[in-house]
Records
---
Amino acid sequence: MELNTSGIIGQSTTLADVFRVLGKVAPTDSTVLVTGESGTGKELLVRALHANSHRAEKPFVPINCGAIPKELLESELFGHEKGAFTHAIRSRPGRFEMADGGTIFLDEIGEMELNLQVKILRVLQEKEIERVGGSGCKKVDVRIVAATNRDLEAEVKAGNFREDLYYRLNVIPLQLPPLRERGTDVLLLARHFLAHFCRKKERQVLQLARDTRRILLAYTWPGNVRELENFMERLSILVDGSSVEPADLPVKILDQVGDISLLPGLPDEEICTGPSSPSMSQYPDKAGLPAAEPGTFVWPDLSTLEMQGLNLKDFLEAVENRLIDEALVRADGVKNQAAELLGIKRTTLIEKLKKRGNQS
């Protein structure tokens, strides 16, 4: 079955490893613990897990355990009965009841207090909840997926997290890599976000200059994908030209990467990548796994256009121009031979070169 990656963009081997585990665990009801630094996209991964499960048509209910005041979190999770506390003027179901039949996502579970951890453990063991102020238990059929940016093993040793709950949650661990370990995914994501925000602001899609790409690859992105997304939105507003140059980047980034002339060169698949020459081998296939080896073909999809910031006409022209250039290089500039390699007439090739402004 084709894996639905719910909009997660990337082709790095580290991300591909995550997708492989995702494909195996999604069809099961096993409890999953997603770990990773803040901003790596943990909720997107959990949504993909739900989308590929047999519960996909049932509710997906997220709750950020660190964003809700501790005194209200129990009621949010388990619901309450009328009169359970001062402002409980009516009975109200909690997130577990809302997720019945589906998936509940406990984000930042490392922030949860110990007394509530006991109740989560009970849900895992007994498949039942009790509303605040209630006198009986209610069965719930939910898959629990949790996420945290904390080291829960260290939290267990420090006495801040229950060891028995940790092991019940950590049946299948999924660790999302930080952006700095995802190679050229940085540029795939940067182009995707930049194109999105430029279109949203009804302006021409900005391109990334060569040295800008080298800088973006060298920067460590402490805020991960979230930082990159916010940064691309800022560029879509502030950059006046048609491309993002190193001078458009903030001092924070330039200071961290140091002397641009000393930065590593671009990977092979990025050297020719630009507004007129997208690299077909740089895109992930529909399963989210790495693209095919050079020399084989990967069908483009709409995400291909979005990542390059191109419409269909521009994309087809870019592919045609790239193939023509390769044929001319192979034929040492001899147009008869280049046309033969392309399977077209010499006159057709000359017409196409004229349209590009080349001499015949």
---
Amino acid sequence: MKFIYHIHDQCCRHASNTLEDVVNLALQEKYYELFFTEHIPLDDNLYLVRPTRNEIKNLRKRIDQINRKYQGKLKIHFGFETEYSKWNKVYFDHFAKNSLGDYFIFGNHYIGDLWKSNPRLVMEEARTISDLDEYYENAVLAMKSGLFSLYAHPDIWLQAYRKWDDKAKWLTKQIIQLSIKYKVPLGFNANGLHQIRDNYNYPSKLFWNEVAKSKAIVIIEADAHDIFTLRKNWLEKAKNEAMKYGLVKNLVDKIDIKYFR
């Protein structure tokens, strides 16, 4: 594992590792390239637990300094993990063209309008068929936009829905088809492995068993909020788990990034 995807910094307000922690570990583990994807800042929405614009500017400045310091030894790329929905599509389109980040990955954490006080967290509150329909609508819009290089934790909705019924099977099938059609790899989430394991907590065996029957491309994503999820032994654990779910032919070590510039 030389290319590590989906990394956060302490500035996101729900991570403990700092950029410097990540760099020190990366040099120790001999990683070659790191792909930071911080949560996208939203004006006046700190209750959604994400960084401010000024914190993003500071993070990008520090990343640029580290790239100069370790040139030839380590390369850090910087982009955003972001939502995308009918409510806020214009903002995300604009942000992609005018931000300090160079690429997007799709992390659809909320359903509802993010600029109102009542968006609902997918992993905790997506419990109804209509919730899954909205989640799917957002995924379609995101994939059609052409902005995204990775579909992060695509099974996160199962953690709240907690049923493997016809609707869950349908949504799983649709996500797989979107991934293949728009050539956006699916992220098998190493961070989720720290949870109590069952069929619904992500990474969900039910979901990934279906992916394994397809030609969808899958990458192990660290989703690092704590330094331990970046350790090579933890990422190997995630890879072994993915292989148990049948993803041997789906897994790749590196994906193409759709840079904005």
---
Amino acid sequence: MTHRLNRPTEDVLARLSAVVGPGQALSAPEDQARYLTEWRDLYVGKTPLVLRPGSTEEVSEILKIANEARIGVVPQGGNTGLVGAQVPFEAGDEIVVSLERLNKVRHVDPAAGYMVVEAGVILADVQTAAEDAGALFPLSLGSEGTCRIGGNLGSNAGGVQVLSYGNTRDLTLGLEVVLADGRIWDGLRALKKDNTGYDLKDLFIGAEGTLGIITAAVLKLFPRPVEKATAFVALSGLDAAQDLFERARAAAGTNLTAFEFMAGWCVDVVVRHMPGNRRPLEGDAPWYVLMEISSGRPDGNAQSTLESLLEGAMEDGHVVDAVLAQSLDQANQLWKLREDMSEAQKYEGGSIKHDISVPVAAIPEYVRRAEDVVQGVCKGAKPFVFGHYGDGNLHYNVTQPEGMDKQAYLELWDVMSEAVHDLVVSMGGSISAEHGIGRMKKHQLAKYRSAVELDMMRAVKNALDPNGIMNPGKLI
């Protein structure tokens, strides 16, 4: 799908700047820098103008002007995305619209189980606002201190509690969206049942800013757990993870709120490179699991359930060792190991990253088969494997062989990714579990999705953005 877009003229740039007012239209390179670089430095874009609107109405005026002039618009939240969707292209023809000033929590109603927040609210601040009201907003990511809820919605973010609460899509009741032509759709309804035709909000969640700009959302709130039990578990092998997961799900049901897994050498890398981390258990194990059971009752049930299922798994030889957190500080220390995993990889050299999913029971088989695939592309490369075992989401990142030139290794990115993704799709999986498509995986999407699916996606795009101004060149 291609549309002929224009480079903005000085007159158009002046009109756009006037919408947001002095100080909110950034044209100097030093002011624009933080909006133009993806955090891994894979993409560095250019733009004539970064706009920082302060209201939905200002976003509407911006899109009216852009649509009339047929210039590309790149929406941006916290600029923490991992597939390049939030960064403009190098040609410098698109404007960037940052939502960071739309940062109000409009309403919190814990009794009714919802809150209304603007798209620029930082995820950690959404969590805090819910907590201050005695409720829980369960979306939790490693970047929660900087990512913004609009970006979470645009990418349908997942995180560590999907197992119990679902993706961002599952946590959203309604949206406010500015369409490509500047019209405002007020879909801020807090209804759990609304069967009046197409569920329009689901078009925009996960659309990566290609259909319109989300400016506010109605988010679900949940009761806060009264008790949490957290354990770090050493396994005899990866097959043991499946056994432990099945035991945990049978014992805890929906109270199993997290089940994260990681290869043993991933733990070594975090402890070696990330200050404040230490090994929770003595000795080495090939695989570890970080698991959490929550309870709404302060009766010790979460802790006793976790202890009981670990004892059974130890008796069967699947669990080699385990440590249960005895305090909130200890639990946070265990979680820090998991949260530092993405950053720790940088210190091992070049890393070719994959955010994939397969059926949960197929994870051990996938990891075994993928090792041969990786070695076939680059002998000596080391899979750095961790992720959300309970929902089948692996971060299958492949680190360069020791001593290999980093740039030479990264030039294998397309070949490695195709090999890894071919195996994923052959096993009924997905090439993007929670990070999205952006510009990184756009051409792979065309390979792995059917012609019918792609035609439907293009039809939606053409209907809502006929001039193709919204995040051009991304997703489809």
